[in-house]
Specification:
Elements lengths: L11 E8 L5 E5 L6 E8 L12 E8 L4 E7 L9 E5 L11 E8 L3
Antiparallel strand pairs: 1-7, 2-6, 3-5, 3-7, 4-5
Length: 110
Amino acid sequence: SRASPLDGAATAIASAASGAHLAPAATLTTTRASSLVFMVGTDTQGSRTMVAPAGQTVVGQSNSLSNTFWVQRTTAGVPTAGTAVTMTSTYTPASFPDRWSVAVIEIRTP
């Protein structure tokens, strides 16, 4: 189902991925200039400190003995519509392959 938009509110476009290989990652193509892209993820095999690449920022994370939950975003708005943005995270020691799931959304400017 689709949520009803609020008058004047920005809209969102979403993508998701999961895996047990390589680093957590998903790609989304922006639909509007100046959009922010967010990724929320979970790693269910260990307590990790997630590290975002250049141009992305980890906004917050929570760890238990065997799980990691985190949110990250593009550091700045993506200037051009139609840009493929790959959101990814790593951690050290990089003992891939952990099981992970991520969801990526575009927060579009009104």
